[in-house]
């Protein structure tokens, strides 16, 4: 995610933009920039760092102008640095863009534009887009709005963009596909605000239009906004609404906490993570960072995964994925243990380091140790250009967007998404998965975002269950196979945000001691989906029931057997076993969230915890 802000009207644009960017920093904060149009000049200031760093630069320069745009970045293509920061200017110097999203086919477009003499200064997909718009504008000799509309018909990906033309300072163009754009409207169309959400302009106007998918708006001072469909340039009826949300509610997308917002962002986060990698129409998985080192992966005798916390749980899921689908032996290590136990690392070992923040000290140290022993290290991170991303030999980013809540949610499911794609790709290349089976997995993965949406719809039932168990002193989480790491993750979620003691176990392990804990005061959360040792798990449920344990079961939609045994069931859609963690974790996230809220805990910033553990 990134944050974009634009202004066109009688006020000085700069203070509106800078304040607006500061309100949007929750959407991304690794670099920032602003452009102001004044007296036929475009003044662009941009820098790696936060909006405050940008302000320190721009304040000492010419910030005059009644038309301007700003951007606070969450890098997806190109590491955070000054050159890759937005805004991006076209080769002529006349067109400027700010962009939130991912252009999947930017590489193809870039090659074509280079053939036509365009030069590029950054590694971003956005700079390609503004030069495509310029090329279309020149070739068709048309106005900016038409050029943007035509250019976007050639673009594959997700975007929210704002574009201006130095030669037309009374016009501002915005367009969206997959990323939000709000347009604030001043009295009598006397001024206009555009932003990723309404927080930058809520104090100036409550009249707004939210662009729908595949819509473009041509904004001109003193005129009604002209909204058009991108694919056929047809006119769209505009629907001006009066905003009711306050500033804080807007930043959280209307949710009470960032954690709940991020739980509900998972369908889009998973989609954004496999976007451009899962080519469902071709039945292939494209991952450049794996392809570029494919010999290493195919000859690997072992994969060692190093991580901490939730990322370590994603690593455990990956152990099942790589061994099950690609037949590659895997060891999963707590980074904090690995770094000090003088581990044996062989030449053909591959290290995979998993980290949302990319700054976890133990994981970083484990990587450095592995590299000092000559190992090849692959990173799975969510923060582009983070320390771990830079320390690893290569890697694959999750595209979850900023995760503000300390309890990791969308990072977990997007990490599993990346790791599943890797395991499927390698399994197919090693001949363990046939092309037709690979295609079946690819088609199923493309259904996961909608299945996560469906799993999220159990929120109200889960809230009721939470009210029953919110005062339990302890809780057990059980799962088998792919669901065992999910049980551990569910227990961690409950522990870290509600402060209830919780433990995760392999379901079959109960008889080796923990079952002594079971009595009528012990809630047991058990994952009993159809795909995944179902009959064995049903037996485990019966063992618990016979000892009066209170059973909360996560089951496959339509289950009738566990329904008769458990005290409460939560249904998730069916999927193939390797993908079940992407669905079964959802109710566990919601359960811990609601219990924590009911206990009056600080859900987004639990006691004693930090979002990124940069110390030992
Ligand atoms: C998870 O909810 C916790 N916040 C914590 O365990 C976290 O997963 C761990 O600190 C690792 O962080 P990382 O993914 O940024 O490396």
SS element count, helices: 22
Question: Looking at the structure, what is the overall shape?
Answer: globular
Q: Structural class of the helix and strand makeup?
A: alpha/beta
Q: Supply Rg.
A: 25 Å
Q: How much helical structure, as a percent, in the residues?
A: 25-40%
Q: Cofactors and ligands present?
A: 2-deoxy-2-amino glucitol-6-phosphate
Strand order of the largest sheet: 3-2-4-1-10-9-11-15
N-end to C-end Cα span: 30 Å
Instruction: Name the average pLDDT.
Output: 95
Summarize the helices and strands and which ones pair or pack:
Blueprint: E1 3-8, H1 13-23, E2 31-38, E3 41-48, H2 51-58, E4 67-73, E5 88-89, E6 95-103, H3 106-115, H4 125-140, H5 144-152, E7 157-165, E8 171-177, E9 182-185, E10 192-195, E11 207-210, E12 215-220, E13 226-229, E14 235-236, E15 241-242, H6 247-251, H7 258-264, H8 266-274, E16 278-279, E17 284-285, H9 288-291, H10 294-298, E18 302-307, H11 309-325, E19 330-334, H12 335-338, E20 349-355, H13 361-372, E21 376-381, H14 387-391, E22 394-397, H15 410-429, H16 435-445, H17 448-456, H18 459-469, E23 474-479, H19 483-498, E24 501-506, E25 523-528, H20 534-545, E26 550-556, H21 561-565, E27 568-572, H22 580-598
The structure holds 2-deoxy-2-amino glucitol-6-phosphate.
What does this protein look like?
This protein is α/β, with parallel strands linked by helices and 616 residues long. Helix content is 37%, strand content 23%. It has 22 helices and 27 strands. The protein has an eight-stranded antiparallel beta sheet, with helices on one face. Strands 5-6-7-8-12-13-14 form a seven-stranded antiparallel beta sheet, with helices on one face. Helix 8 (266-274) runs antiparallel to helix 17 (448-456), helix 11 runs antiparallel to helix 19 (483-498) and helix 19 packs parallel to helix 22. The radius of gyration is 25 Å and the shape is globular. It starts with a strand and ends in an 18-residue tail after the last helix. The model has no long low-confidence stretch (mean pLDDT 95). Bound molecules: 2-deoxy-2-amino glucitol-6-phosphate. 2-deoxy-2-amino glucitol-6-phosphate (AGP) is lined by residues 308-311, 355-357, 360, 363, 406-408, 496, 612-613. 2-deoxy-2-amino glucitol-6-phosphate binds next to helix 11.
């Amino acid at each position: 995610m990134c944050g974009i802000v634009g202004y066109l009207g009688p006020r000085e644009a700069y203070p509106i933009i800078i304040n607006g960017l500061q309100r949007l920093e929750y959407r991304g904060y690794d670099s920032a920039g602003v452009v102001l149009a004044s007296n036929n000049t475009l003044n662009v200031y941009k820098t790696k760092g936060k909006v405050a760093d940008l302000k320190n630069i721009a304040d000492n320069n010419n910030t005059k102008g009644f038309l301007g745009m700003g951007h606070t970045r969450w890098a997806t293509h190109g590491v955070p640095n000054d050159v890759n920061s937005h805004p991006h200017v076209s080769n002529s110097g006349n067109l400027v863009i700010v962009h939130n999203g991912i252009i999947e086919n930017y590489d193809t477009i870039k090659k074509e534009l280079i053939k036509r003499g365009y030069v590029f200064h950054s590694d971003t997909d956005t700079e390609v887009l503004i030069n495509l718009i310029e090329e279309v504008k020149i070739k068709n000799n048309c106005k900016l709005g038409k050029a943007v509309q035509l250019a976007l018909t050639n673009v594959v990906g997700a975007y929210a963009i704002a574009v201006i033309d130095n030669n037309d300072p009374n016009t501002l163009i915005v367009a969206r596909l997959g990323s939000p754009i709000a347009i604030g409207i001043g009295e009598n169309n006397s001024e206009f605000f555009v932003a990723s959400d309404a927080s930058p302009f809520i104090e100036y106007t409550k009249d707004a239009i939210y662009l729908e998918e595949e819509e473009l708006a041509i904004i001109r001072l003193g005129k009604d906004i002209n909204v058009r469909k991108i694919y056929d340039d047809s006119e769209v009826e505009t629907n001006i609404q009066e905003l009711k949300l306050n500033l804080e509610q807007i930043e959280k997308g209307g949710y009470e906490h960032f954690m709940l917002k991020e739980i509900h962002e998972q369908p889009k986060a998973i989609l954004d993570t496999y976007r451009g990698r899962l080519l469902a129409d071709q039945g292939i998985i494209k991952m450049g960072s794996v392809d570029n080192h494919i010999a290493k992966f195919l000859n690997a005798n072992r994969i060692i995964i190093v991580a901490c916390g939730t990322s370590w749980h994603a690593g455990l899921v990956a152990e099942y994925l790589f061994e099950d689908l690609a037949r590659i032996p895997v060891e999963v290590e707590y980074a904090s243990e690995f770094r000090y136990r003088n581990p044996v690392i062989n030449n053909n070992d591959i290290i995979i380091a998993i980290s949302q923040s990319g700054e976890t000290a133990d994981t970083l140290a484990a990587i450095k140790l592995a590299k000092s022993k000559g190992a090849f290290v692959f990173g799975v991170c969510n923060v582009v250009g983070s320390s771990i991303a830079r320390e690893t030999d290569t890697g694959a980013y999750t595209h979850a967007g900023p995760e503000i809540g300390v309890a990791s949610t969308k990072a977990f499911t997007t990490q599993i998404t990346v790791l599943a794609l890797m395991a499927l790709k390698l399994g197919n290349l090693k001949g363990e998965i046939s092309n037709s089976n690979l295609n079946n997995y690819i088609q199923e993965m493309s259904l996961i975002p909608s299945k996560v949406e469906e799993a999220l719809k159990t929120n109200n039932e889960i809230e009721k269950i939470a009210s029953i168990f919110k005062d339990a002193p302890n809780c057990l989480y059980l799962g088998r196979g792919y669901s065992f790491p999910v049980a551990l993750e569910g227990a961690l979620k409950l522990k870290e945000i509600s402060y209830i003691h919780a433990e995760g176990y392999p379901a079959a392990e109960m008889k080796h001691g923990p079952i002594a804990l079971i009595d009528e005061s012990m809630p047991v959360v058990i994952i009993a989906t159809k795909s995944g040792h179902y009959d064995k798990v049903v037996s485990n449920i019966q063992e618990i029931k016979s000892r009066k344990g209170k059973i909360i079961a996560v089951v496959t939609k339509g289950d009738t057997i566990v329904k008769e045994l458990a005290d409460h069931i939560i249904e998730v859609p069916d999927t193939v076993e390797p993908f079940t963690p992407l669905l079964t974790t959802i109710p566990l996230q919601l359960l811990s969230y609601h219990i924590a809220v009911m206990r009056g805990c600080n859900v987004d910033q639990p006691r004693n915890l930090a979002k990124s553990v940069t110390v030992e």
